[in-house]
Sequence to fold (209 residues):
Amino acid sequence: MNNTLEEYKKAIKIKYEIEKDGEYFDFLYHPSRGKLRDLCWLIFEDNPTQDDLKVFRNLLCVDFDYTQKNKFKNQKDKFRPIETFFKGETDPTNIDAINLAAVLVDFQPRPFKKFNEKCRIEEAKQTKNVAKDVTVEIDSNGIEENVLLKNENEESKEVPEKENLMLNFKDLFSKEMVQKIYPRKIITIAVGTVALVSSACLYLVQKKD
Fold:
């Protein structure tokens, strides 16, 4: 919570730096306890929220009352922590003073309780998104591993198939060669034999003559 409170104060101070040059320049540019008190009354005259009224009561220990403006003027010292906070002179720890500072510069979300709740919600969303991203990454890695394993299995199957194909091709080639070469040899031998027999017969005939 301490870190969140520091963020709350920093955010209010940033809003102050913007607002001091805006509509309430006369009250905020060189803030004093009296100016901040008068600005507070001006703001609360214009339909304050229940949260803001509670902040007013917690810090000033009185309820806001339109008819008690004169008494309210005596509350100037209550605005000292806000004055020094805006000037950067002190780091307030009074949560009620910090909340009223948020009211004076119209910082939202306020009070601190709402700011803290919003921060918790945002942190929960971020944690959920991170967990979701991690899950998606794990799933994608699992898919990649399955695809890789499948590819490896397919490649291992392709190797024997290629080897079998080569062997079959060799066998087929050998058979074709035998079928082509062997008949040629038979024909050649047969022709040679016929020629040899014919020559022998011709020789015998010539010898008798």
Remarks:
- Residues 2-110 form one domain.
- Confidence is low (pLDDT under 50) at residues 175-183.
- The CA atoms of residues 99 and 112 lie 7 Å apart.
